[in-house]
User: Which sequence fits this backbone?
């Protein structure tokens, strides 16, 4: 065996021994600690107590270690006993936006929009199952062969999805999605997610109580954009937010956040987004914000936008602004109220004023790629007029997306609504006359 192979073999054996050692010290810790006494302590006190006990055990029974190695061992043992074990350092890393565990030996993370594998692994499949059980137990759920898929939440609010064999062929799969940090429009403009004039225009749309749909694919930043735009809602208005997982962080005082609820172990007690939208209409909201529409609640949301809840906002999965319209039609048709497609399209035409579409580049960058106004004359089919588009240049060897934000005149009816609300139109846009010419 060559030197390189021997070193690699020693590294692998050392890693396995280290994992086994952590499991040994975790068992010793649980043998010595008083669990009843521990239950009375807060989280910070509990961690401090476990670190102290683990330090005594390792100092009394363990091998000779450097201060750094000893501190790392104690931290890993306490993470195993108290937190999510090997995932704790990843959860503490603010640059990590998603954690993907594909079986005990394959852990991937997303940083800056790029997915990469990390040198982290579970000691065994049993240890991964223990971590999963610890997560789902917090929300009174279970995961087993009879219920092999489950959604849950961590105490910090991160969304968790679990799927296990026999549905998964690579062992237990655990996906943890972290909340995006709240950004202001100015911060998003500094990150080239949009340009300053578009930010001013979108802020004017929100203040003028236009109904906005934010569309995009998975991971394009729809919730981040929704959160940033919500900052321009006046503080005196009553806002009801509806989400599957409460991610929005509105700064206004009068906000009522609602969150859907999955069924319990007996498959009862489910509260859907549609149930919450219907209930929200009875809560006297000035605006309703839905984190994402996925089904029949779309029709209820469109009707709410049409009946005195102007300025509402919603996100939807779509690949373009036009696709967002078709997607809304399809989702609205899933309602138990069966309406012709033409009628649903008329509902969308009356309810939605502007569609903001976000995209994600090959370099992981997220930005607004199109803003379109719903501009339909009487008797016409629903028509979209682009207000802003991002035109990208050919990608070079560095794989960085570069391009330019192009601005177009606003339709006259849209500009008129802004004028009556006391809002201006940024000069780079201008206003399109009724005859279709900009001025």
Assistant:
């Amino acid at each position: 065996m060559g030197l390189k192979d021997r070193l690699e073999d020693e590294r692998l054996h050392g890693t396995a021994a280290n994992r086994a050692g952590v499991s040994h010290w975790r068992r010793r810790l649980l043998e010595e600690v008083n669990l009843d006494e521990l239950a009375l302590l807060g989280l910070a006190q509990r961690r401090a107590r476990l670190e102290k006990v683990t330090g005594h055990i390792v100092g009394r029974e363990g091998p000779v270690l450097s201060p750094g190695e000893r501190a790392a061992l104690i931290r890993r043992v306490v993470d195993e006993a108290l937190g999510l074990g090997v995932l704790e350092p990843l959860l503490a890393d603010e640059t990590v936006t998603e954690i993907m565990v594909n079986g005990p030996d394959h852990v991937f993370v997303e940083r800056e929009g790029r997915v990469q594998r990390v040198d982290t692994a579970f000691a065994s499949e049993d240890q991964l199952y223990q971590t999963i059980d610890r997560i789902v137990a917090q929300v009174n759920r279970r995961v087993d062969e009879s219920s092999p898929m489950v959604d849950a939440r961590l105490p910090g609010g991160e969304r968790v999805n679990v799927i296990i064999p026999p549905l998964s062929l690579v062992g237990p799969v655990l996906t943890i999605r972290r909340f995006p940090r709240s950004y202001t429009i100015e911060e998003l403009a500094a990150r080239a997610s949009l340009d300053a004039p578009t930010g001013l225009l979108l802020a004017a749309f929100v203040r003028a109580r236009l109904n906005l749909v934010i569309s995009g694919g998975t991971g394009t930043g729809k919730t981040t954009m929704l959160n940033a735009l919500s900052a321009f809602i006046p503080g005196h208005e009553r806002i009801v937010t509806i989400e599957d997982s409460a991610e929005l962080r509105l700064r206004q005082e009068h906000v009522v956040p609602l969150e859907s609820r999955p069924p319990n172990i007996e498959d009862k007690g489910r509260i859907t987004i549609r149930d919450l939208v219907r209930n929200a209409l009875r809560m006297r909201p000035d605006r309703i914000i839905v984190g994402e529409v996925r089904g029949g609640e779309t029709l209820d949301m469109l009707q709410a936008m049409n009946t005195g809840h102007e300025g509402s906002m919603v996100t939807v999965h779509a690949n373009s602004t036009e696709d967002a319209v078709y997607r809304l039609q399809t989702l609205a048709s899933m309602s138990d109220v069966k309406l012709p497609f033409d009628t649903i399209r008329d509902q969308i035409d009356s309810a939605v004023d502007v569609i903001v579409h976000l995209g994600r580049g090959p370099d992981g960058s997220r930005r607004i790629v199109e803003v379109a106004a719903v501009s339909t004359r009487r008797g016409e089919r629903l028509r979209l007029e682009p207000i802003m588009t991002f035109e990208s240049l050919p990608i070079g060897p560095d794989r960085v997306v570069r391009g330019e934000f192009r601005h177009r005149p606003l339709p006259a009816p849209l500009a008129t609504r802004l004028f009556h609300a006391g809002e201006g139109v940024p000069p780079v846009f201008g206003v399109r006359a009724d005859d279709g010419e900009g001025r």
Remarks:
- The radius of gyration is 26 Å.
